[in-house]
Known about the structure:
- This protein has about 650 residues and is of the alpha+beta class.
- It folds into 6 domains: about 15-95, Phosphorylase Kinase, domain 1 (2-Layer Sandwich), CATH 3.30.200; about 100-280, Transferase(Phosphotransferase), domain 1 (Orthogonal Bundle), CATH 1.10.510; about 370-435, 2-Layer Sandwich (Trypsin Inhibitor V, Chain A); about 440-510, Trypsin Inhibitor V, Chain A (2-Layer Sandwich); about 520-570, Trypsin Inhibitor V, Chain A, CATH 3.30.10.20; about 580-635, Trypsin Inhibitor V, Chain A (2-Layer Sandwich), CATH 3.30.10.20.
- The chain is about 30% helix and about 25% strand.
- The protein has a 6-stranded antiparallel β-sheet with strand order 1-2-3-4-6-5, with helices on one face.
- Helix 3 (about 115-135) packs antiparallel against helix 8 (about 265-280) and helix 5 (about 195-210) runs antiparallel to helix 7 (about 245-255).
- The chain is elongated and about 160 Å long.
Amino acid sequence: MTTSTTDPMIGRLIDGRYRVRSRIARGGMATVYVATDLRLERRVAIKVMHAHLADDTQFRDRFIQEARSAARLAHPNVVNVFDQGQDGESAYLVMEYLRGITLRDLLQEYETLTPEQTMDIVEAVLSGLAAAHKAGIVHRDLKPENVLLADDGRIKIGDFGLARAATANTATGAALLGTIAYLAPELVTRGIADTRSDIYAVGIMMYEMLAGEQPYKGEQPMQIAYQHANDSVPTPSSKNPKVPVELDELVLWATARDPEERPRDARVMLERLYETQNLLRTSPPTGPIPAAQRTRVLPVVQAATAETQVLGAKPVASSETGAVSSGATASLAYESAKRRGRGRWLLALVLLLAAVAGGTGWYFGSGPGAQVTIPASLEDTSVAEARATLSRLGIEVREQTGEASHPTIEVGKVVETTPAMGTAVVKGSRVTLLLSTGPEPIQLVDFRGMTQDEAEAAIDGRWTLADPVERQFSGDVPQGTVIDALGADGKTLSDDEVYGELQPITLVVSAGKVPDVRGQTIEEAIANLQKFELTGEVVDEQYSEEVEKGRILAMDIPDGLRPGGEVTLVASAGPAPVTVPELAGLTREQAEATLGELGLTVSYNPIFTPFPAAEVTGSDPQAGAVVAKGSNVAIYLQLFG
Length: 641
């Protein structure tokens, strides 16, 4: 995963709702970021089309097509699309965020995968792809980079940017689309794709997982394309002898050059994969069978001839005729019959054992005693889907269902089975579906007053810490201390409630006090607020005796203020103006006192100061004039009474 702190998108608020946090990846058409949906308080992935493509109608239409194609799919093995829109010149697509790696990352680290790992990943890919094909959508860009492996074990297909409706012949246009290493021959030669083209890409990925490399190599893309169009994909076992022949056959079927010889869609290949999994899990180890275990046909004892002789024995002669004794003849006949009977019995035993062996093989291979594996793909499916899948495998489902809590699976969908998924059972066995009751409720604790580290430790293992932690300014709560804890609905969680296992909790942590900028110049105040990620806005001016004109007189801090918020400021307009009063008829002393109370200074006309009781005849400025506080008023005096 790559991030960039210099990317101008980092920190930007898209469409007034999505705050961009960091960059995940950059492709030829768009860049993908991690963002926070401020409205729903959740983390999302947001794909933003490159600015230089904004004026290209073809790319913009393809970008919108991805949103429409993916939004039509609701499957646990397909990345969910939440929103799509335009913000200025930027077209964007909002998807669920999966923390994890891609299949490409996994292959780069391990090179080859075991047959079991390969089958598990292909099962998830085909399950999601089957939903797309059923909805009439061809992906057209399947590759390891678009297979996402989440940290929680989920496997999902993403990037439907090249998806099109699955008509009989979906043309790509003038240029080949998709990654060259996974293009089906018909895309190379005729530029036409359908569901079988996706199957070809799955077969190439399967080869790569088992063999540790792609089947075709070349210095130029067209060299690889030529091999796709003219050569047959070799068996993975030619590179990795540990690959069983059953997986060789599955790869060759999926990558047949003639589309007619491939599975017609992902559902067909998925069913064959289930059969292959069951076969590999129930078959005996490969290799020569020990001699002691081989079936041997015993030789049949030959019947005696009519003239049986006992070699070396002397005939017993009759005293009268010299004939051979009849008792000896009877004894020889008995021994001969006994040998013949033993031979027939051994032959019958051999035939019986052969019949039993054959019958046993049929019974446990394809008959009533055959074993099948309860597929893991039943998880997060509806009861109807689970029943249909198990019925195809010859497994019955009990009418009565069980219940089990699950943090992410929707209420009423399958969580587990009894016996458990992955267990081999005899055909005709009955299983019980365990349906989700939602997350397991756990008693909450009071997070308020904890430090951030303490609150995160309390959340770990019971709930999920939503990222990012929200910061809020407070004059009462010390910096770094939790002010509030919010649930998935954005409402405050109370310690007298229960909350679902592994459900998200957003911590609101004190960012400390807002800096006091009163008395500072307007420029100084705005600059200091920016250091705390706040905006200062002067909204009014008021007269002030204490604060110099042009400096901040007051500030309004809204409740719940967070970084990125605004503080309204009031600037000083200096002292309030004064209206010159009517002074005529007052004595000099009275006029001076009146003007002094108003903050005005006094001068005289004439300039010398007459006696205190001199009468005022007028003023300059005249009565009623508005002047600044501290201004001088000249008073006219009657010099002689």
